[in-house]
Amino acid sequence: MMEKMWCVKVVLIILLKLDKAFLQKLAPGENPTYYNIGGVLSSNASETHFATTIAHLNFDQQYVPRGITYYDKTVRMDKNPIKTALNVCKHLISQRVYAMVVSHEQSGDLSPAAVSYTSGFYQIPVIGISSRDAAFSDKNIHVSFLRTVPPYYHQADVWLEMLSHFGYTKVIIIHSSDTDGRAILGRFQTTSQTNYDDIDVRATVESIVEFEPKLESFTEHLLEMKTAQSRVYLLYANKDDASIIFRDAAAFNMTEAGYVWIVTEHALNANNTPFGVIGLQLVHAHSEKEHIRDSVYVLASAIKEMRLNETITEAPKDCDDSGALWESGKRIFHYLKTRNIRGETGQVAFDDNGDRIYAEYDVINIRDHQKKKVVGSFYYDADKLKMRLRINDSGILWPGKLRRKPEGIIIPTHLKVLTIEEKPFVYVRRLTEEELSCEDEEIPCPHFNASDGTENEFCCRGYCIDLLRALAHRINFTFDLALSPDGQFGHYVLRNMSTTGVQVKKEWTGLIGEVVNERADMIVAPLTINPERAEFIEFSKPFKYQGITILEKKPSRSSTLVSFLQPFSNTLWILVMVSVHVVALVLYLLDRFSPFGRFRLTNTDGTEEDALNLSSAIWFAWGVLLNSGIGEGTPRSFSARVLGMVWAGFAMIIVASYTANLAAFLVLERPKTKLSGINDARLRNTMENLTCATVKGSAVDMYFRRQVELSNMYRTMEANNYASAEMAIQDVKDGKLMAFIWDSSRLEYEAAKDCELVTAGELFGRSGYGIGLQKGSPWTDHVTLAILEFHESGFMESLDKLWIFHGNAQQCEQFEKTPNTLGLKNMAGVFILVGAGIVGGIGLIIIEVIYKKHQIKKQKRMEIARHAADKWRGTIEKRKTLRASLAMQRQYNIGLNSTPGTISLAVDKHPRYPRLGPRGPERAWPGDSDLVRNRRLEEKGFKAPPKYSPAYTSDVSHLVV
Question: How do 414-419 and 204-211 pair as beta strands?
């Protein structure tokens, strides 16, 4: 029956080759109707199987549409890579092959590399079915190479799954220093960081042992490995090097009980692989026929899809043509990388490098006499569309022929512990030359200076030191304590790990850097738990919960010269001053225009009281406001008195309010904080002249860097950040720094110790202080359980009372409630006001005296002028009297001989005596009473008539008679 089937296959192959001769030549712009597939294979059986597979492919309409035919073109793989390249040019490329399937000789991968170079020059895709070296993943060299087998370094993915399954968190990787060895290490680290970030327990590499191939001895490396904590070894080495490593490890008893060896396929085949070693074996690793079939069907699937979307041009015809590259070959390679089909070797798919993914492995356990026992598998889960690991734990025999899984780690009982000076958690005191040791409550904590390598002796005590002692006693370990080498908690610095700057690595400083680099086992300090640190070190449960707050200096109590004016605002004072004068003016107007306001009372003593004038009204308004007795100048009208009563009520309310507020401001005044918290606009506004800072490289610094909404504030703070909290707190006390942002525990301690300091606002960025340990440290769970017990027993609360509060918080609170005693500093403004009044009064009296003197001088001048005028007027009167007498005498003499009235007519007509107006009867001769009467009349606006006038003539005439 088999012979008949073989004959049918041969006939089909012959018919397909004959049919090719009758096909028409490809028309321009159309896809080819036949495709030559090249094969560079290692045996006759493989070539025959390759031809048969293509023959069957042509009848599979799922992959080959009607009218499309595939033909096989094969050459034998030669050990000489140059001959292989020449055969490819002569027998394959000249036949216009659209792709090649290549196998390899067991001696090496040089011949497949030659095929890849030659085909890659013309962009002809090459599918490898057995080449697993990491070099073929480099697309800069092997531009068009795919493979249906995974590279060796992909076993790192299975390693991580196995470590996660067994629960091992700390390992040592041993690898050769060739391309594949470094590739498997890189794959392990990259996959661990990208795919296992969300897992609490993640495998970390404690140390990396890299050796040169072709070993003679591995003893030196084993001595270093024996001192490490991890007992889980991941080995990548070829068969010969693995034999040397296993030989030397057995000599150090490192293949016995307690040790775990997980190896790759090469090391699994060593002739002295120890009992209990667990390794991996690729399923279908040597099934060349299955890989040939999968590669052919993957190629057919890619060409089928490409024909539907694009036009495929003819393949290159010979190697002598050095013209343009074959663009359709690039596109075929792209379609090949997107394939995902179910084949004979499992799920066939490729990554961006063209490497096989979803490859399946058997988990092998080595037994006696090098027998291999399959205890699990790494397979593709079609339901969940991902790889799964399945291991039968009960079927594994571990080194030492134990059924129980080893711990994989040795727990040291003597730890190196680091701390840092941070009051009140750690107080540091330097030993003097006379002192030989620390006191009973202190622990030696030397400081090894990282910059100059010097060592100084210090003693430490405090909250964390007591906690460390309790932990050591509770979980039974000894320790050596030291201070942080660079005096910092630790922050990361991004460094470029390559010349192009693409690969970036975080390098930690301070305490974190010491633990990450495994130079210390534990950190006992006020170390804040945050995501950045938790990525690289382990944290225990918090031993103290806290947050971030702001420390500032209390504003000084207001004791300015105008402290007595503080009860009222400036606006209110101005309104009161204006009200005084407005009320005074209204009182004056009411009293002035009231019909009863100008009434003058006649007192019993015969004196008269004047009506209210403007000056008296102002005096009255001020007197009522200042609650002083008013002795004069009160309103007289009813309307003005009503206003006066209202003003008195207003004054009573103002004075009472002032008195009450004055007591609050001067006696019970307690200053408030300047800032309301982290959301205060003055902190958020960078233009405000407010200096705030934190400690650079601290957890608070990382918090601000992480918060996008605080980025503007952080840019302002970054230039002001301090190297230590001590310096910043001292600057707050000195007034050089307005706000220091730091952990609430420390700032509450400082505020309790110094009542002039105060914390502002509510806590933000809440977190906790934890004990820091190495990744995968066996002490993590023990420390966490001990801290939880300390919380339940009240031990942590006792540490808070002893080291943080000291009872000072109650003293500060009592001080705040005690009223402030008034002193000269508070009331100096009042005395200055009195002094200003005295000086003002003296100044005004001087002005009054000067003004009075000026008035007296003016009055004297007026009196002199009035006296001179009176004297001159008297002289004139005498002359007038004399003339009148003479005139009368003449008239008398003439009248003796004339008619009556002659004398008066003569006098009237005389030119020197003008005629005066009519005048009533008066006394004929002037006397003293007449002069007084005339002067009074002149003062009242009446002009006195002359003593002698024609009106008196009738009186003079009787004298003549």
Answer: unpaired
Find the largest Cα–Cα distance for the chain: 211
Question: What residues does 171 pair with on adjacent strands?
Answer: 205
- Judge contact between 17 and 69, C-beta under 8 A: no
Tell me how far CA of residue 513 lies from CA of 230, 415, 533, in angstroms.
Answer: 20, 17, 10
For 239, residues 6+ apart whose C-beta sits below 8 A from its C-beta are: 266, 267, 269, 270, 271
213 prior amide bond cis, ω within 30: no
Task: Compute the distance between CA of residue 274 and CA of residue 246 in angstroms, rounded to an integer.
Answer: 7
pLDDT tens readout for residues 123-134? 999 999 988 999
The secondary element (H helix, E strand) that includes residue 782 is: helix 780-793
Secondary structure (DSSP) of 527-541: EE--HHHHTTSEE-S
3-state secondary structure of 911: coil
Three-class SS of residue 38?
A: strand
Helix ranges, 610-666 (H): 614-625, 638-666
Backbone angles phi, psi at 209, to 5 degrees: -110, 115
Whole-Å CA distances, 233 to 158, 175, 667: 14, 10, 76
Nearest one of 249, 178, 242, 253 to 215, comparing CA atoms? 242
- DSSP structural state of residue 137: G
Q: In whole angstroms, what is the distance from residue 248 CA to residue 272 CA?
A: 11
Encode pLDDT of 854-890 as tens digits: 889 888 889 899 899 988 988 998 888 998 888 888 8
Radius of gyration of the chain (CA): 59
Nearest 5°: the CA angle 265, 266, 271 is 115
Question: Whole-angstrom Cα distance, residue 132 to residue 815?
Answer: 80
User: How many Å apart are CA 54 and CA 61, to the nearest integer?
Assistant: 13
Q: Above pLDDT 90, what percent of the chain?
A: 35
CA distance 460 to 469: 12
From the list 184, 240, 190, the residue with the least C-alpha distance to 212 is 240
- Exposure string of 119-147, with b = 16+ CB inside 10 Å and e = fewer, is bbbbbbbbbbbbbbbbbbbeeeebbbbbb
The rounded distance, in Å, linking the Cα atoms of 359 and 354 is 13
Torsion sign, CA atoms 903, 904, 905, 907: positive
User: 203 is written with which tokens?
Assistant: 């495998």
Assessment of whether the complete model's pTM goes beyond 0.85: no
